Amino acid sequence: MVRIAVVGLGKMGLSHYAMINAHSHVKVVAICDAAGYILDVLNKYTGVPVFTDFDRMLQEVELDAVIIATPSSMHVRMVRTVVDRGLHVFCEKPFCLDTVEGDALVQVVHERRLVNQVGYHYRFVASFQEVKRLLDDKAIGEVSHILAEAYGPVVLKPKGSTWRTQRTEGGGCLYDYAAHPINLVNWYMGMPESVGGTVLNKIFSKDTDDEVLGTLFYAGGKSAQISVNWSDESCRKMTTRLTIWGTGGRIYADRQECQVYLRDNNFIPNGYQTGWNVRYTTDLTEPVWFYLRGEEYSAQLDYFIRCIEERNVDHNVNSFSEGMVTDQVIAMMIADADGSPRASGIKPPIAQKKKTGFFFGAR
Amino acid sequence: MDRLLFGDNQFFGVNHMSEEKARTQSMRFQDIRAVIDVLDQAYDEGVRSFMCTTHDRIALVCDHMRSNPGRYGEFRFLPCMPYAHKYANAVTDDGILGALKRFMPDEGIMNAAMRGGMSLARKDIEGITTLLVDAEMKMFAGLHTPVVFLQNVVVDLLLGLGFKDAFRIFSDHIRNRYGAEPGFITMNMPMLLDALDDVGIENPIICSNINKIGFRMCGGFDAYERSLRERRFRAIAMSVFASGAIPPREAIEWVCRQPNIEAIVFGASTRSNIVNTKSLVDSYWPLNQ
Questions:
Q1: What ipTM does the predicted assembly reach?
Q2: What distances in angstroms separate CA A29 from CA A65, A185, B113, B250, one per listed residue?
Q3: For residue A140, what pLDDT is reported?
Q4: Mean pLDDT per segment of 10 residues, for chain A of length 363 residues?
Q5: How far is B163 from chain A (nearest CA, A)?
Q6: Does any domain span residue A262?
Q7: Chain A: which residues have CB within 8 Å of chain B?
Q8: Topology of domain B4-85+144-284, CATH
Q9: What are the CA-CA distances from residue A237 to residues A153, A255, A299 (Å)?
Q10: Domain boundaries, position A28
């Protein structure tokens, strides 16, 4: 049995708790949150030991691992405390708001050989995993461009302030939404050489961004474009999609399906054919032991537990160092957006009077 | 319970296969009249039970049914609650208190506030749960609701947390206050059966994915087959086509061979799809079997 504590019982923490608690190889031995109310209710009805003091919990309970789902600005201190005690860590995304502190944590988990994972659940979505397989197989040849998008209905009008509405606390569309498609681009293409054209635009929020646009530049003229908006009511829930162009074809993927066009002069993977191919989530998705809100959420926790059981610290998916790549790109985008846009120096042309005559205008 | 229940995913842009298809359906059912037209077609084909989320737009369907009692004498609603987005949005717009007020049942704010306030203070979930159930049931006043379901996102959250008393509270309240059967939707049927056993809910109505390819049947295909054979419960099969991954005839033929299934819930956007599914079920699942 892997003994686990869940820290932070917001939306993500509560759902992690429910899923991991249903795992047959896991015993949740404590939960911890700053707000006593929800703890008292859970303790009253389920008997789980509860703590409002994180450090006291670590002193009093025997643990193998900790799931951290607190507001992002608390991640560094908590992860540090946990790894110093030699415990394995699953930390919600974004990993660290300060990339220097993040680097130090990467160092520690490597030295102490601890399982470390960040909650970028899209790497456990079957269709995005299929994209990874196809790209690794060079099924669409050399990739030249990725368009990575995410849209959803989170902030639809001005509203009160919480940690989620402040970028300094790790809130906002960039950290919350855009981190996911950026993380997928990092998975497929790695760390960009530079970023440019970053727009972090406020639509309804006062202290953070609701819209994120930008370009990631890679060697050899390759690039990725990020287009993310969490003030889009036309999407029922968060919708993430990728379009990838390569010399040998094109891939479109979202959570439900993977549409692949392969040119005939190309290596054709098993089960695929030249021209259009469609793979659905129903074919691609592996079963999970417990379903709450999408197989990927269950699968990422199961992977974490398996790594602990096998003491596998060399094949962590979404390891701290991988999470750091995304944190670094986010930091680059913030710096890029803060720099004032360079003016083109070209004056907008004065609108000319419509010419009429033999060669111009209506006949 | 009818053997064939009509689902509502298609009306609200829920499609587990394709986001494009989901969007097209959202556009098609933008006007509630389009939803009612399809329900009319189902009704006229003999599919008279509508298993629906307590979405705001369903209130419009309820209004329509209430104002045409002659046309819909046999129509039954099987509400599935809560519509989670509704709560999230209401809390965002009006704050927690405003949202609670908006969802107060008609019995009077005092009674509801007492139940809500007292139980909030005592950390007693019974009052809050029954209050929220009543709020969700408000739109169905005066309509026939023989079964009331708890949605899978709530059932499976409670199941994971081990919060089994909530199932008992929901079940008792649905029986006592509405004279209806409680139902539970889940993606983890075998595990839920054990939990309901633990709190003494006998022969429960459980709606879960049951399909030939094992799509979203958590606990495993074998555990589902064994549960259907050996456990005492009233099974409703959903996602029998696995979002279109299984051809209709093959899907229905398989599901009709499974023991202990009392009903099948399916969605359709056209009369021809309704007719096709109904005739397949009639041929593979003859009455009196």
A1: 0.90
A2: 10, 37, 36, 46
A3: 96
A4: 95 93 97 87 93 97 97 94 97 90 93 96 97 96 98 87 75 94 98 97 92 97 98 92 97 96 89 95 92 96 97 91 95 90 61 50 43
A5: 6
A6: yes
A7: 14-15, 17-19, 21-22, 37, 40-42, 44-46, 48, 156-157, 159, 236-237, 239, 241, 254-257, 280-283, 285, 287-293, 295
A8: TIM Barrel (3.20.20)
A9: 6, 12, 20
A10: 2-114
Please say whether the beta carbons of A2 and A25 come within 8 A: yes
Q: Which residue of B has its CA nearest to A127?
A: B17
Min Cα separation B207/chain A (Å) = 15
Nearest to B160 among A22, A41, A241 (CB): A22
Query: What pTM was computed for the model?
Result: 0.91
Distance in angstroms (rounded) separating the CA atoms of residues A290 and B161: 12
Contact indicator for A7, A69 with CB cutoff of 8 Å: yes
Residue A362: inside a domain, yes or no? no
- Contact residues on chain B for A255, CB-CB shorter than 8 A: 19
**A37 found inside a domain:** yes
In a shared domain, residues A99 and A169: no
A135 shares a domain with A57: no
Q: How many CA atoms lie within 13 A of A225 on its CB side?
A: 9
User: What CATH number corresponds to the domain at position A220?
Assistant: 3.30.360.10
Reported as a single tens digit per residue, the pLDDT across A290-345 is 999 999 999 999 999 999 999 988 888 999 999 999 999 999 999 999 886 656 66
Query: B19 vs A256: CB contact, 8 Å cut-off?
Result: yes
| Residue indicated by tokens 């994120």 | A212
Q: Per the domain annotation, does A29 fall within a domain? A: yes
Nearest CA in chain B to A161: B92
- DSSP E strands, B48-180: 49-53, 76-81, 147-150
Report how far apart, in Å, the C-alpha atoms of A159 and of each of A154, A166, A168, A233, B242 are.
11, 12, 17, 16, 40
pLDDT over 70 (residue B113): no
Angle at B186 between CA B80 and CA B221, to 5 degrees: 145
Does the CA dihedral A161-A208-A170-A156 come out positive or negative? Answer: positive
Choose from B19, B20, B91, B222 for mutation: most chain A CBs within 10 A. Answer: B19
Which residues in chain B are contacts of A293 at CB distance < 8 A?
Answer: 153
* Orientation of helix A320-338 relative to helix A99-112, angle to 10°: 170
Do both A66 and A17 map to the same domain?
yes
B139/B133 Cα distance (integer angstroms): 11
